[in-house]
Amino acid sequence: MRNPRPLCAVDPCFIPNRHVESCDDRAKCGGCLPGLAADGLNLCTHHARRIGPDVLTLAARHRQLGLALAGTGQPGGERTSGGDKNPNISLNLRAAAVRRDIEALLNRLARLICSQRGFAWPTDTLTSVAERPYGFIGPMPATTRTRHTYRVPPLARLVARSADWLAAHQQAAEYSTALGELARQAFRTAFPTGTRVFELPGLDGERFLACPETVPGDNGDEPCPGNLWTIMRRDGDRLPPQIMCNHDEQHQWPSTQWLKLGRRMLQAAA
Length: 270
Hints:
Blueprint: E1 14-15, E2 33-34, H1 45-68, H2 93-117, E3 123-129, E4 142-148, H3 152-161, H4 163-167, H5 172-190, E5 196-199, E6 214-217, E7 220-223, E8 228-232, E9 242-245, E10 252-254, H6 258-269
Antiparallel strand pairs: 1-2, 3-4, 5-8, 6-7, 8-9, 9-10
Helix pairs in contact: 1-2, 1-3, 1-5, 2-3, 2-5
């Protein structure tokens, strides 16, 4: 009886170590049996589960590519003065191009989700205090307003929450392939010298180490939901090793603060 379930829309998609009856050499073939789409989706379980992590990985890689641009004169890096007359001679154009590709893809997916699902675009809350008039004595009232944000972390969280919806979309194969390929390209660009990335193991039996910082919530400050991971670089690399949070780009600790962070984590776990 023919299986009514459709095949995974990603081409090619084969189940590892599973073969069709017409396979000629199963010893050398890694798997040639096509994967079936999961119930209600256009992708198999593997590719559907990869959408959310790939989106959050792109947000992390976007920040890492910003570190690779430090000191090159590109947006997000340090400004330099003097030196060669040609300011473009030391620019990391590939890192800048990949960052733009990440921003463009996340904006495209966020607009698709907001237009077709009716979700609100992510916003930033800005608090400002008006300039004190001359001769005025006393506190000035604070003004709070919100505006649409195009920062990568909020857009990535919006897209990641709709991972299952994207997996059921008619263009699910296109989105899944684009996210995976861009995540791999961003890693090769951010870490061309073979830098390694490790997720830190958690305390008290937890799989990953939770971020000790807080983030603004509906009822005040709430514990950050992110996990910590570390970037280990080779000797002689201009960029320092760091511990970073996969939720908020402001939560990062250079190697000079690792002992202080470790004591803080141990005191919180005691």
